[in-house]
Design a protein that fits this description.
Number of helices: 13
Largest sheet: 6 strands, antiparallel
Oligomer: single chain
Distance between the termini: 93 Å
Strand content: 25-35%
Shape: globular
Structural class: alpha+beta
Length: 448
């Protein structure tokens, strides 16, 4: 009995000693090659950034959503939000000058029905005044999104306040995509309005759902057998047909984003899923504009799938040096890697949140003022290749808050990199990039 008692005493002491061993310290380095401890981001409330608490509590909710018939021509005011492409269902904070949009219309959510229907258009590209040149060179610059106001300052800057700077801060939501047809100047201060075509949403439903009688659909599992059966009705192989099948594309995309720890809603439909991907993936503004104007959900999904399968890291947009790999993304705003915020100067910034980065130097004193992530201080990030500003480093103020640090890379300062196979000669490399770039670019809407 004494022997067994000694063994139990020894094992109990071993467990106690093992439990008291502290975890190893994290390896930190200035160049960003940092190894974090296990990230348990659930400890940080990922719903907080979307509340935009840094804007203050003086925000008024607006309960009105503009809606216009698909294909119709409407005259609406518009604002430029540089390099920020507002997608349908996406919410972003912006700063609007009272000279650009009639603020009275935006805050009058208790008025007549006509005022409730009014909105304005957010455009990412400043097209100037020569639309004919833009239509020939960069026609996708003309795409925009009708926006509704979700929240707005309770005492916004009104048009009469000519001397007041800073504009009116508000949170808007994308509603319908549109195409700028022409300029129209109307109202006081010669506010810029545009004639916009409201673009239709073409989902390209599976062929069987179109031709099959409703009473037959319950007898056939379209999700599992629909593509196979529909392919047999066409001269195309099932493999080729599947690349244009919505159900197949969504399933493949969900497999790809599992590695990135992205968390879309499970019951989201294919069109909204395509817009969500266009919002959260690290894509440059010109590519997102083409996705916004894609002729169908299928084209948008195909382009996103090709991008996910080909790009493997994020490079500096100026010098091309590698800054991060896609597997190191971390969701710090709900289930997204990407989110938009507004800085003290009133400029909307979109950032990708990453666990670790490389070829980066950190500078500036840490500060919690105007932080986008409550509980974290921020400092600036500089690219070691070109010394340009590329984002911010966030560090927790409390030792209990995890992750202890992460990084935010600004969308406009990074580009996704496509990695070719090793051993390719220059001509093969050129052909490779031409094929990949062509395959990723969606077919976007054009006026006849």
């Amino acid at each position: 009995m004494s022997v067994w008692r000694s063994i139990r005493h020894f094992l109990s002491g071993t467990r106690n000693r093992m439990a008291s061993i502290p975890p190893p310290d994290e390896a930190m380095s200035d160049n960003g090659d940092e190894q974090q401890a296990e990230v348990r981001s659930a400890f940080f409330d990922v719903t907080l950034p979307a509340k935009h608490a840094y804007l203050g509590q003086d925000l008024r909710e607006i309960h009105s959503t503009p809606f216009y018939a698909e294909g119709s021509l409407v005259t609406l005011p518009f604002v430029y939000v540089p390099d920020v492409v507002l997608m349908p269902n996406q919410q972003i904070p912006i700063n609007v000058d009272a000279h650009d949009v009639d603020i009275n219309v935006l805050i009058n959510d208790m008025g007549d029905i006509e005022n409730q229907r009014k909105g304005f258009v957010c455009m990412a590209a400043d097209v100037g005044f020569d639309l004919s040149h833009v239509k020939d060179s960069h026609p996708y610059f003309l795409f925009g999104t009708v926006a509704s106001v979700v929240k707005i300052e309770k005492q916004p800057t009104m048009p009469a306040d000519v001397g007041i700077e800073g504009g009116t801060r508000m949170i808007v939501r994308g509603c319908q995509r549109c195409l700028l047809k022409d300029f129209v100047s109307r109202g006081p201060f010669h506010r810029q309005h545009g004639l916009f075509r409201i673009l239709p949403e073409n989902g390209l439903e599976p062929p069987l759902e179109i031709i099959m009688p409703n009473e037959w659909k319950s007898a056939v599992s379209l999700a599992k057998r629909g593509a196979q059966i529909a392919a047999n009705l066409t001269p195309y192989s099932p493999a080729l047909f599947a690349t244009f099948d919505v159900v197949h594309l969504v399933a493949e995309l969900r497999k790809e984003i599992m590695a990135l720890q992205l968390k879309p809603e499970m019951d989201i439909d294919a069109t909204d899923f395509s817009y969500w991907l266009s919002t959260t993936l690290p894509l440059p503004a010109h590519f997102r504009l083409q996705l916004l104007g894609a002729v169908s959900t299928v084209h948008r999904l195909r382009s996103c799938l090709m991008m996910l399968r080909t790009f493997n890291r994020l490079n500096c947009a100026v010098c091309g040096i590698g800054l991060a790999v896609k597997e190191d993304g971390i969701c710090m705003n709900r289930g997204d890697l990407t989110a938009a915020y507004i800085n003290p100067g009133g400029v909307t910034q979109e950032i990708f949140t990453m666990r670790k980065v490389s070829n980066i130097s950190v500078f500036g004193a840490p500060t919690a003022e105007y932080t986008w992530f409550p509980g974290y201080t921020w400092r600036h990030l500089r690219c070691r290749g070109c010394h340009g500003h590329v984002g911010w480093k966030y560090e927790s103020e409390s030792p209990e808050l995890v992750p202890k640090y992460f990084y935010g890379l600004r969308r406009g300062d990074v580009v996704p990199s496509i990695q070719p196979e090793e051993g390719m000669n220059p001509s093969e490399l050129q052909e490779f990039f031409q094929v990949q770039n062509g395959a990723m670019q969606p077919v976007y809407y054009r006026e006849k």
